[in-house]
Amino acid sequence: RIPLLIDTDPGVDDALAILMAFDDPRHEVIGLTIAAGNVGLSHTVRNALKLCEVADHPAPVFAGATGPLLHPSRDAGYVHGRDGFGEIGYDAPARNAETEHAALAILRLSHVHAGKLLLVCLGPLTNLALALRLDPTLPSRVARLVVMGGAVTAHGNITAAAEFNIAFDPEAAHIVFQSFERTELADWEAVMAHGFPHARFERWVRADAKRARFYDAISRRTREWAEGRRGELWHSADALAMALALHPGGALEMAERPMVVELEGRHARGATIVDWRREEGRPDNVAILRRYDQAAFEARLEAALAAG
Ligand code: BDR
Ligand code: CA
Question: Which CA distances in Å does 230 have to 197, 222, 225, 279?
Fold first, then answer.
């Protein structure tokens, strides 16, 4: 099985993506490395531990960055709930996080699984940037890097031009995209192009399974918020990135291009600037997901919720 390490800030859509991975027979989730992002680190770590418990999965959980490398950022508690999991007040998880720091765990596991590791990043890229600063040879041991982040034609979701994961820690994103020769990217625009009706999702979370019941509860608040704001389609950003990671064959169209992160702009800090016409002579460094097999994506979401 392919060793899969997930760096994440759970987060309602992170949770769905992680459930998809837990359920996949071709991949083995070898750990969850956690950063602050959607909400503070104490919540994102606790949420990861709780999710493992609900799904009955033994993946170790490593706590990492408490915030961005340089400048403080605003979190997304208004989307995911102040605790990141819909404020349902679940019982404390029985297990604790490991004592090893997330950045060190990424490096160690990259040696254990050198050449085979699939690394999927669903939150701000702070942990991965820290790991890269400690050991710049890391990319040579990673088979594939898949990131949920960016807004490749500047239709942002946290500012006009920027997507949350990149805008939360632009410097970390800059380090990551400069360090890896090729990053597969599921950006916010791809996410918006792969929505599904709320009514359909409600049918899936009504499955008679522990995971579905838990997911129904933690996502309800966010679904109501999204329905009021974005209308009848529901989107799951991190789940789309995970679909690309687990089943790359479902990608119907990818675009390889050079991309940089804007670090200084007055209106565009954290924007991902794609050189669509290759004007500036830089090498391609991202493979941007443009179209994914929608039916396959939805079938996997439904299966992940019904499992266990
Ligand atoms: C991304 O930001 C977070 O709120 C979500 O978990 C997802 O990773 C979408 O912009
Ligand atoms: Ca996330």
Answer: 11, 11, 9, 35
Q: Place 248 in a pLDDT band, splitting at 50, 70 and 90.
A: very high
Ligand 1 pocket check: which of 8, 43, 122, 166 to mutate, most ligand atoms within 8 Å of Cβ? 122
Residue 308 alpha carbon to ligand 2 centre in Å: 23
CA 143 to chain centre: 18
Question: Cα(70)–Cα(49) distance, rounded to whole angstroms?
Answer: 28
Q: Which residues contact 234 (CB under 8 A, 6 or more apart)?
A: 195, 196, 197, 198, 201, 223, 226, 227
CB 149 within 8 A of CB 166: yes
Question: Could you read off the pLDDT of 56-84 as tens digits, one per residue?
Answer: 999 999 999 999 999 999 999 999 999 99
Asked whether 62 lines ligand 1 (CB < 6 A), one says no
Most ligand 1 atoms within 8 A of CB, residue of 19, 38, 289 to mutate? 38
Determine contact, residues 47/76, Cβ cutoff 8 Å.
no
Give the global pTM.
0.98
pLDDT over 90 at 232, yes or no: no
The DSSP line for 281-298 is -PPP-EEEEEEE-HHHHH
Q: Which residue has the tokens 């085979």?
A: 116
DSSP state of 148: E
Hey, what are 265's tokens? 């702009």
User: 82-92 pLDDT, tens per residue?
Assistant: 999 999 999 99
| pLDDT value of residue 150 | 98
> What number of H helices and E strands is found in the chain?
12, 12
ipTM above threshold 0.90: yes
Q: Return the pLDDT at 231.
A: 80
Q: How confident is the model at residue 229 (pLDDT cuts 50, 70, 90)?
A: confident
